[in-house]
Amino acid sequence: MEQVACQTISFSRGVCGRAARTAETQIVDDVHSDVSHVACDSSTKSEIVVPILFNGEVVGVIDIDCEEEKGFTEEDREALERIAVLLAAGCNWASLG
């Protein structure tokens, strides 16, 4: 069953927050071994979070969970980082401020 995000997560919490703070993609092969992981779905075993940057600032993240450990590869990282660049270029982020 597909789940949507369970909550808004501040930059100080979770893997999403870590990606936002560092402006770097985070791949967590085993979310149960990452103390900062915020569980939204108990079936999640791995996670990838890619920051979306606009004018050098993080304006959002792409957060994908997987029901398998080590569910994400470097190819996944590269593809999602390209998508993040497209989102940054294609959205009107300036209107959010």
Automatic annotation (TrEMBL):
<dbReference type="InterPro" id="IPR003018">
    <property type="entry name" value="GAF"/>
</dbReference>
<dbReference type="GO" id="GO:0033745">
    <property type="term" value="F:L-methionine-(R)-S-oxide reductase activity"/>
</dbReference>
<dbReference type="InterPro" id="IPR029016">
    <property type="entry name" value="GAF-like_dom_sf"/>
</dbReference>
<dbReference type="GO" id="GO:0005829">
    <property type="term" value="C:cytosol"/>
</dbReference>
<comment type="similarity">
    <text>Belongs to the free Met sulfoxide reductase family.</text>
</comment>
<feature type="domain" description="GAF">
    <location>
        <begin position="5"/>
        <end position="88"/>
    </location>
</feature>
<dbReference type="Pfam" id="PF13185">
    <property type="entry name" value="GAF_2"/>
</dbReference>
<dbReference type="InterPro" id="IPR051330">
    <property type="entry name" value="Phosphatase_reg/MetRdx"/>
</dbReference>
<protein>
    <recommendedName>
        <fullName>GAF domain-containing protein</fullName>
    </recommendedName>
</protein>
